[in-house]
Design a protein that fits this description.
The complex is a heterodimer of chains A (787) and B (250). Chain A contains 23 helices and 22 strands. Chain A is an alpha+beta fold and 787 residues long. Chain A has a six-stranded mixed β-barrel. A six-stranded mixed beta barrel of chain A has the order 13-14-20-17-19-18. Chain A has a four-stranded antiparallel sheet with strand order 2-10-1-11. With 250 residues, chain B is an alpha/beta fold. Chain B is built from seven helices and twelve strands. In chain B, the strands form three sheets. Chain B has a six-stranded mixed sheet with strand order 8-9-10-5-11-12, with helices on both faces. In chain B, α4 runs parallel beside α6. The chains are: A alpha+beta (787), B alpha/beta (250). Chains A and B meet through α1, α8 and α11 of A and α3, β8 and α4 of B. The structure holds adenosine-5'-diphosphate (ADP) and magnesium ion.
Chain lengths: 787, 250
C-alpha cells in the first residue's frame, strides 16, 4: 500500500464518526435500492416465467353459455394462437370451521391430457383421475387457510344439493397468484376457494354438456390485442359474453402490476432522497477536510505530486466510504428484501418466489452511491487541486463576519453574545445552514410519510367499510331476480333491514377510450350502501345518469356533462348514451354508480335486482348463514367484517414493518446531519471556542454555543419538515393513485406529533454524543498550534 | 539604494561553471481586488551547481516569492526563469509539477509534515514518486533521526520535525534544495543543528542550496549572500571562507 493510501485510511479513522454517519446514510439509500429493485426483479422474473411456463392466457372472456363448436371459429381470428373453453361456476361451500358460507369457484379441467392454458402446479397430492366425479384439486391459499390436505373432504352446495368433494391435490394457478374473488375489494383466502374438477362432471352438474361459459385465448407474438378483443366480442356477443379483456384487466395480474409499479417508484424515490442527503454530507465534510489540509495539499504539490494524484487521493477517501456504505446497504437491503419477499408470499402465490440478489442490482446500487458521493465531493476536490501551491502555504485570511440581518435591524439587544455568535455563524454560511436545516426537515418529512400511511389506510377502510358499506352481509343472486325476492330475504332470521341493488356488466366508451366494469345500481335513499366520498360526505345518487369514481373519469377522460356510450353486456345488451352527472373521490376500484330504477330503465327491464345488502342482528348470524347456504337463488354470500378483519391484520403488520424502516432511516439521517454539522463547526471554530474557554467560559457554555446552532436549525427545520412531510405524503398518494386503491391524503395530528418527537429525540441524542466528544477535546491545546 | 540592474550583474559563466538557474528581470505583482502588491521589482540572478546561497532581507521584501518562483511553485508576472533547460516562467502546471518532482526539495518554516504519517512515511511519500531516491531510512539517518523513524509528527519536537522535513527534501537526491526560513520556528541550539544538516547535505550531495533567513548571522555559512529589499536585490557578497553552523555566533 502506498503511503498516500495509508494517509487515506488514517484520515478516515481520524474522522470515523463523521465517516460512519455518511456511510450509514448511503447504506440506507443503497439498502432501499437493492431491496426494492431485487424484489422487483424477483417478482417480475418469477411472474414472467410462471406465465410462460404455465401458459397464462392473453385474453379472457366469460359468457353465459356457448356451444363448443364456437371454438373452431374463434381460433380462426387473426392473431389467436390457441383457445381453451372451460366451465367456471361459483358455488357455496359449507366449511366446518366457518359459520358463514364460503364461495367456491369450480373450474373444469379436461378429462384427458393437460389443460392448454392456466396449467396447474401440483404442490401436494396427485392429479384428478378420469371418471371420479367427487375429486377436486384445491388451490393452496384456500387449503392452507383451512388446513386442508389431500384426502380431506369438503361440502359444496351445487344446484341446491349438498355434495361431498374430496381433495386429491393442492395446486397453484397463474390465474390466481393474487387470490381475490373478482369484484371483491379484499382478499380472503378463507372464504374464497378455487377448486378444479373433471370437465364431464362439472358439465353434468350445470347442464353444460357440449357447451362452455369461460374462454381463454393465447395470442401470437405481436398480435394486436384491441383488434382481437373486438373480433372476439363480435363472435361471442350472442352467447351472453361479459366482454373480452386482456391481462391488464385480469384481477390477479392487476394486483401484481400494481405492486410492481409501487416497487418501481420506491426503487427510484427513496434512494434518491438518501443519496442526495449523503451527497450533501459528503460535500460539507470533504470541503472541511480539504480546508484543514490546505497546507498538506500545498506540500504534496511542492514535492511534485500532480493534480490528478492529489484529486485521486481525496476521491479515494470518498470511495472507501462508498464501498463501506454499499456493502452495508447491500447486506441490509438483501436482508430486508428476503424478509419482504417472505411477506409477499402471503399475498402472492407462486410455485417458488425466490429472492435472489442479482449482481447488476448491486453494481447499479454501488454506481448510484458512488455517483452521488463523488458528485457531492467533486466541487471541493476540484478546488483543492486547482489551488496554487504557493498561495496555500500562506495562512488563510481571517473569515469576515458582519452583524446579522436581525442585528442590523436593531434587535441585537434581545440576543445574548452566545446567540449572536450562533446567528452570525449561520448567516456566514447561509447555504450550509439552509441545507442542514433542509436535511433535518427531510428526516421529519420521512417520519411523517412513514407514519401517515397507516392512518390513511385506516381512514379509507373505515370510510368505505363502515360509513359507506353498512351492511353485514351481501347476497348475490345467480340471475337477476324480481324485486320481491328482497322481501323474502327481509324475512330471514336476524335480518334487520335489507336493501337491493342491480349490478350490470357493461363497457363504458368515451371517445377512443373504454373500460369494462360493472355499473352498480343503488337505491336512491340507500341506508346500507351509501356513496361516501373522501371527505366522508354522503352523496345522493341523481335520478338520472352516472356517477363515476374520479379515477375512472380520468381513465376515460370524461367530465361531468359528457355523454358516455354504455354498452351493456347482459340481457338484451342495449347500447345507450348516458350522461355523467357526478364524479366522486373514492378509495377502492373504478366504480360507476346509477340510481337502481334508472339502471332498470336503461336495461328496458322491470324492477330486477342482482342482490341485496343485509343488516343483521349479530346474535342470529349463524341461523341466517345456515338458511343462506341453502337458498337456491343465492350464488354468493359476502361477509364483510371477517374479510375486513383479516385484511386489517395483515396490512397492519406490513405497515408496521415499513414504518419501522422509515423511523430507522429518519433517525440515521437526523444523526448524520446533526453529528456532522457539529463536528465541522467544532473544527472550524476550535480556536475561537478555546479562547472562550481560556477567558473563563465553562465547558457547558462552550457546548451550548456549538450545539445552539443545531438547536436553532432543528427548531427552524421542524415546521418545514412537517410541510415537506405533507408534500411527500401527497407524492405518496399520487404514486398510490391506482385503479385498485387510492391512498387518501389524510394525515392524523398524531402523525405530526410523532414526527416532531422523533426528530427532536434524534437531534438531542446526536447532540449528546457530540457533546461528550467536545468535553473530551482539549480545546486549550488547539491554541498552542499554529492556525 | 543600489540599482539592481547595473550594480550586480552576475557573471554568466562563473567559477563553478554553467549556471543552473538563470533569472532575468523577474517581477511579481499580486492583485488583491483593487490593491496591487509589487512583491518583486525586477530581479536578475544566477545560481551555480553546488552553490550554497543565503537570501537575506526584511519581512515582506520578496524572499519567499523569489524562492517559490525558483522552486516552480509560482510563476513570475514578467521576466524569465530557466532551470537548465526548463522554462519556469511559463504557467504550465504539468511542466512545473514535473520539474518539482524531479529536481526540487523544499524545507518550510513550519515543517509542513503530514500529521497522519510517521517520520518514515513522510519521507517515503516523496521517495515513492522520485526517480532515484535514497531509502527513507538512509535519509533519516543523514539527519540523525534513525531512532525516531516510527514517530508521528505530533510526538516530535520542532527541531526533530524540521529534520524530518529536511530528510524528506533530500531523500530524492534533489538538484536544488530550497529552504524558507528553516530555523524560523526553532530555538537557537536546535536551529544550529538544523542548519548543520542543511550544510552537510550541500557539501556531501553537492546540492545547490538556497536558504532564506532574516538572521544575518547565518549568512556566514554561505558561499554567497544575497540581500533583498522591497523586491530588489540590493547587495551580494561572496564569502571567501565559509563557516560551519557550529561556529556561528547568534
Ligand atoms: N499570495 C499573495 N497574495 C498577495 N500578496 C502577497 C502574496 N504573497 C506575498 N504577498 C505580498 O508580497 C510581498 C512579499 O512577500 P514575501 O515574498 O512573502 O516576503 P518575505 O518572504 O520576504 O517576507 C509582501 O508584501 C506580501 O504581503
Ligand atoms: Mg517569507
Amino acid at each position: 500500500m502506498s503511503v498516500l493510501d495509508r494517509k487515506v485510511l488514517r484520515d478516515l479513522w481520524q474522522m470515523r464518526g463523521q465517516a460512519l454517519a455518511i456511510a450509514l446514510v448511503m447504506a440506507c439509500g443503497v439498502a432501499a435500492f437493492v431491496m426494492s429493485l431485487s424484489m422487483l426483479h424477483a417478482l417480475e422474473n418469477t411472474q414472467e416465467r410462471y406465465y410462460e411456463d404455465y401458459q397464462f392466457p392473453h385474453i379472457f372472456v366469460h359468457l353465459k353459455r356457448a356451444p363448443r363448436t364456437l371454438l373452431e371459429r374463434l381460433v380462426t381470428v387473426p392473431g389467436v394462437s390457441q383457445a381453451q373453453a372451460r366451465i367456471v361456476e361459483d358455488v357455496t361451500l359449507d366449511m366446518p370451521a366457518l359459520a358463514e358460507p364460503a364461495v367456491g369457484r369450480l373450474i373444469s379441467l379436461p378429462e384427458h391430457g393437460e389443460a392448454r392454458m392456466n396449467r396447474l402446479y401440483l404442490r401436494r397430492g396427485r392429479w384428478l383421475e378420469p371418471g371420479r366425479s367427487e375429486e377436486v384439486l384445491a388451490n393452496e391459499a384456500f387449503a392452507e387457510a383451512h388446513g386442508l390436505h389431500p384426502g380431506d373432504s369438503l361440502v359444496a352446495i351445487i344446484n341446491g344439493r349438498r355434495q361431498q368433494l374430496r381433495i386429491v391435490g393442492v395446486v397453484l394457478s397463474p390465474e390466481y397468484i393474487y387470490q381475490i374473488r373478482p369484484g371483491d375489494m379484499l382478499p380472503d383466502a378463507k372464504r374464497f376457494g378455487v377448486l378444479w374438477m373433471n370437465e364431464t362432471d362439472l358439465a353434468a352438474a350445470f347442464d353444460m354438456e357440449g357447451a362452455f361459459n369461460d374462454l381463454t385465448l393465447r395470442l401470437m407474438p405481436g398480435a394486436p390485442e384491441p383488434e382481437v378483443i373486438r373480433r372476439i366480442d363480435r363472435l361471442t356477443a350472442d352467447y351472453g359474453s361479459l366482454g373480452a379483456y386482456g391481462r391488464t384487466d385480469q384481477t390477479s395480474n392487476l394486483f401484481i402490476s400494481n405492486e410492481l409499479r409501487q416497487l418501481r417508484s420506491m426503487a427510484l424515490i427513496v434512494p434518491i432522497i438518501f443519496l442526495a442527503v449523503a451527497a450533501f454530507l459528503m460535500n460539507i465534510v470533504i470541503t472541511r477536510l480539504i480546508g484543514t489540509q490546505r497546507e498538506q495539499i500545498a506540500t504534496l504539490k511542492a514535492f511534485g505530486y500532480s493534480r490528478v494524484e492529489i484529486g485521486w487521493h481525496y476521491l479515494k477517501m470518498v470511495l472507501v466510504l462508498v464501498v463501506l456504505g454499499s456493502v452495508l446497504g447491500t447486506a441490509v437491503g438483501t436482508w430486508m428484501g428476503a424478509g419482504m419477499t417472505a411477506l409477499y408470499t402471503r399475498f402472492f402465490h407462486f410455485p417458488v418466489l425466490r429472492y435472489r440478489l442479482d449482481p447488476p442490482v448491486i453494481g447499479l446500487g454501488f454506481l448510484a452511491c458512488a455517483a452521488s458521493a463523488v458528485g457531492g465531493a467533486l466541487g471541493a476536490v476540484r478546488r483543492a487541486v486547482r489551488q496554487p501551491p504557493a498561495e496555500a502555504m500562506r495562512p488563510e485570511p481571517p473569515q469576515s463576519f458582519r452583524p446579522t440581518v436581525i442585528e442590523r435591524l436593531g434587535f441585537e439587544r434581545f440576543f445574548s453574545p452566545a446567540l449572536r455568535m450562533i446567528l452570525r455563524q449561520m448567516e456566514r454560511r447561509p447555504l450550509r445552514a439552509l441545507l442542514s436545516a433542509l436535511v433535518i426537515a427531510l428526516a421529519t418529512a420521512i417520519l411523517v410519510v412513514g407514519d401517515f400511511v397507516g392512518g390513511s389506510v385506516q381512514y379509507a377502510l373505515d370510510t368505505y367499510f363502515h360509513l359507506a358499506q353498512r351492511q353485514d352481509v351481501t347476497v348475490l343472486f345467480g340471475e337477476p331476480s324480481e324485486g320481491r325476492v328482497v322481501y323474502d330475504l327481509g324475512h330471514l332470521p336476524g335480518v334487520r333491514s335489507c336493501e337491493s341493488f342491480r349490478n350490470v356488466p357493461a363497457r363504458l366508451h368515451f371517445g377512443p377510450r373504454s373500460r369494462r366494469l360493472v355499473i352498480q345500481g343503488v337505491e336512491r335513499q340507500g341506508e346500507l350502501n351509501r356513496l361516501i366520498d373522501f371527505h366522508q360526505q354522503p352523496l345522493v345518487v341523481p335520478a338520472q345518469g352516472l356517477v363515476l369514481s374520479r379515477k375512472l373519469a380520468e381513465l376515460l377522460d370524461a367530465h361531468v356533462g359528457d355523454a358516455l356510450t354504455v354498452e351493456v353486456l347482459e340481457g338484451l345488451r342495449p347500447v345507450r348514451e348516458v350522461l355523467v352527472v357526478g364524479v366522486m373521490e373514492d378509495f377502492f376500484g373504478t366504480n360507476a354508480y346509477m340510481e337502481r330504477t334508472a339502471l332498470n330503465r336503461l336495461m328496458r327491464e322491470g324492477p330486477l335486482v342482482s342482490g341485496a345488502y343485509l343488516a343483521v342482528d349479530s346474535a342470529r348470524l349463524t341461523e341466517l348463514y345456515d338458511k343462506l347456504k341453502h337458498c337456491p337463488g343465492v350464488a354468493v354470500v359476502v361477509v364483510k367484517e371477517a374479510a375486513l378483519k383479516s385484511f386489517e391484520d395483515t396490512i397492519a403488520e406490513n405497515l408496521l414493518i415499513i414504518k419501522s424502516f422509515m423511523v430507522v432511516f429518519a433517525c440515521i439521517i437526523a444523526f448524520g446531519v446533526v453529528y456532522n454539522s457539529v463536528r465541522i463547526t467544532l473544527a472550524e471554530r476550535a480556536r475561537e471556542l478555546a479562547t472562550l474557554r481560556v477567558i473563563g467560559f465553562t465547558r457547558a457554555e462552550v457546548s451550548r454555543i456549538l450545539l445552539g446552532e443545531l438547536a436553532v436549525l432543528t427548531v427552524l427545520a421542524i415546521p418545514g419538515g412537517l410541510w415537506l412531510g405533507h408534500a411527500l405524503a401527497e407524492l405518496d398518494t399520487l404514486v398510490n393513485d391506482t385503479e385498485l386503491f387510492r391512498l387518501p391524503l389524510w394525515i392524523e395530528p398524531s402523525t405530526y406529533g410523532f414526527a416532531v418527537v422523533v426528530t427532536l429525540s434524534a437531534a438531542l441524542v446526536s447532540g449528546l454524543i457530540v457533546r461528550r466528544q467536545i468535553d473530551r477535546l482539549d480545546l486549550v491545546s488547539v491554541l498552542k498550534t499554529k492556525e | 539604494m543600489i540599482d539592481s540592474s547595473t550594480a550586480i550583474l552576475p557573471a554568466l559563466d562563473g567559477p563553478r561553471g554553467q549556471a543552473v538557474f538563470q533569472a532575468r528581470g523577474i517581477t511579481k505583482v499580486y492583485r488583491m481586488g483593487e490593491v496591487e502588491v509589487q512583491a518583486l521589482r525586477g530581479v536578475d540572478l544566477d545560481l551555480f551547481p553546488s552553490e550554497f546561497v543565503v537570501l537575506l532581507g526584511p519581512s515582506g521584501s520578496g524572499k519567499s516569492t523569489l524562492l517559490n518562483i525558483l522552486g516552480g511553485l509560482d510563476v513570475p508576472t514578467s521576466g524569465t526563469v530557466r532551470y537548465q533547460n526548463h522554462d519556469l516562467s511559463a504557467e504550465n502546471d504539468a511542466l512545473l509539477t514535473r520539474y518539482r518532482r524531479q529536481h526540487v526539495g523544499f524545507v518550510f518554516q513550519f515543517y509542513n509534515l503530514i500529521p497522519s504519517l510517521t517520520a518514515r512515511e513522510n519521507v517515503a511519500l516523496i521517495t515513492e514518486i522520485a526517480a532515484n531516491p535514497m531509502p527513507p531510512e538512509e535519509a533519516l539517518a543523514l539527519v540523525g533521526l534513525s531512532e525516531r523513524m516510527n514517530h508521528f509528527p505530533s510526538q516530535m519536537s520542532g527541531g526533530e520535525q524540521q529534520r524530518v522535513a529536511i530528510a524528506r527534501a533530500i531523500a530524492k537526491r534533489p538538484d536544488v534544495l530550497l529552504c524558507d526560513e528553516p530555523t524560523g520556528a526553532l530555538d537557537v541550539t536546535t536551529g544550529i543543528v538544523v542548519l548543520d544538516v542543511i550544510a552537510r547535505v550541500n557539501r556531501e550531495l553537492g546540492t545547490t542550496t538556497v536558504v532564506i533567513t532574516h538572521n544575518a548571522v547565518i549568512a556566514g555559512m554561505a558561499d554567497r549572500v544575497i540581500t533583498l529589499s522591497d523586491g530588489r536585490i540590493v547587495a551580494q557578497k561572496s564569502n571567501a571562507a565559509k563557516r560551519s553552523a557550529r561556529e556561528l555566533v547568534w
